[in-house]
Amino acid sequence: MKALLEIKGLQAGYGAVEVLRGVDLVVGEGEAVALLGSNGAGKSTLNNVMCGIFRPWSGRVRFGGADLTGAHYREVVKAGLIQVPEGRRIFPDLSVLENLELGAFTRGRARRSANLERAFELFPRLRERSRQLAGTLSGGEQQMLAIGRGLMAEPRLLILDEPSLGLSPLLVEELFALIRSLRDGGLAVLLVEQNVAQSLDVVDRAYVMENGAIRFSGLPSELLGSDELRRAYLGV
């Protein structure tokens, strides 16, 4: 499988505190990959470095064959590397429609109408609430909006950072069904999650981070099939 995202030897931190310690990670074209690990493992820092929000100390980020190491986040978005951040980060005082349209501000503007219709097909509740202020939506609806906004940018790779956080069990089931559908449709997905069992059910490969380093990479069956790995890295 052709590599879409390639991260090699990535080191980064805050001030003098090292957070990422030589991270290597690959996501192939059309592949769904899980990045698992507990709070404080370095997952969000890795996301922010990949997406141009923080600059790395050393190492390389390549996407679609281009070097994006330390690139401005606008250039990252233009390349098609789109993150749906933890906490949704919607604009609460704008309508659902305005939030979605902002997703196409940098990328996907030419096909905004078609992409908007696709978002409404995926999330019919957003169509029903298109004129409603985003801040008045339920938590599950806000997560739908955040994902829909990300899809408006026509991602080549969609990073979902803790998308199931705070959702009811029923909405979590719906969310993971959507992720499986996106993968089956050929979209590359990097799923950053603490929900281990359901994440491993919808991805092709998995990485486990611990203390800023990758401790495991391989098939979900390999991770779940090893009692030692489950106990050491997943606490299950």
UniProtKB/TrEMBL annotation:
Molecular function terms, GO-annotated: ATP binding
Alphabetized UniProt keyword annotations: Amino-acid transport, ATP-binding, Cell membrane, Membrane, Nucleotide-binding, Transport
Q: Which PROSITE patterns match?
A: ABC_TRANSPORTER_1 (PS00211), ABC_TRANSPORTER_2 (PS50893)
Cross-referenced SMART domains: AAA (SM00382)
Domain named ABC transporter: which ranges? 5-236
InterPro entries reported for this sequence: AAA+_ATPase, ABC_transporter-like_ATP-bd, ABC_transporter-like_CS, BCAA_Transport_ATP-bd_LivF, P-loop_NTPase
Q: List the SUPFAM superfamilies.
A: P-loop containing nucleoside triphosphate hydrolases
- Family named by the database record: Belongs to the ABC transporter superfamily.
The name on file for this protein is ABC transporter ATP-binding protein
